[in-house]
User: Which sequence fits this backbone?
């Protein structure tokens, strides 16, 4: 059976609001609703989301009231609270540094190697008690999603076209529960055709 890691789509950016409290934008909600109407979304029997608002909102839309959404604080995005909000260009440069130097902290950010260990442990903790016959979706964030994909693919932490999700969020990759092999590269969630 399969699992998905899904990143939240576009958010309503507000520098006056802490990043974990940002919700989905109208476009983000629209994309999540399109994905929720797909065949694959109806097959998911369990949703586990980060506790951040944008991830919970995405999971709630995808679950469409069929199953409850579980949350796990350990699935949160890498902790960037040391710098607070960064303008988009500055954020992208910071993210490049975060991935390029996984053993170092960028200006007080959680280190990439620590964020990777955290997201991998959270996933494995959930899967340790999960029925492997039931498709499951983890709903979270692009940074830790990329770190998880690197781990599952057995590749070093790196931000490049093969590992990092496309801009805008709202992407997914799939992996087999039996052996944790990645079976689908990053794909827009509303475009994925399923397994």
Assistant:
């Amino acid at each position: 059976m399969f699992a998905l890691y899904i990143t939240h789509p576009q958010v309503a950016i507000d520098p006056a609001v802490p990043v974990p409290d940002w919700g989905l934008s109208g476009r983000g909600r629209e994309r999540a609703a399109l994905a929720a109407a797909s065949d694959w979304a109806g097959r998911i029997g369990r949703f586990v989301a980060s506790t951040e608002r944008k991830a919970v909102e995405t999971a709630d839309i995808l679950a469409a009231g069929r199953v409850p959404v579980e949350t796990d604080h350990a699935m949160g995005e890498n902790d960037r609270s040391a710098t607070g909000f960064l303008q988009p260009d500055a954020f992208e440069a910071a993210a490049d540094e975060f991935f390029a130097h996984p053993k170092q902290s960028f200006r007080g950010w959680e280190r990439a190697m620590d964020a990777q260990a955290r997201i991998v442990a959270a996933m494995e903790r959930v899967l340790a008690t999960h029925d492997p016959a039931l498709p499951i979706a983890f709903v979270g964030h692009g940074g830790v999603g990329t770190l998880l994909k690197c781990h599952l693919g057995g590749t070093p932490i790196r931000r490049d076209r093969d590992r990092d999700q496309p801009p805008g969020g709202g992407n997914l990759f799939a992996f087999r529960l039996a052996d944790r092999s990645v079976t689908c590269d990053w794909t827009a969630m509303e475009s994925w055709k399923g397994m």
Q: What stands out?
A: The longest strand covers residues 182-188. The first helix runs from residue 26 to 36. The helical segments are 26-36, 39-43, 53-63, 88-100, 112-127, 142-153.
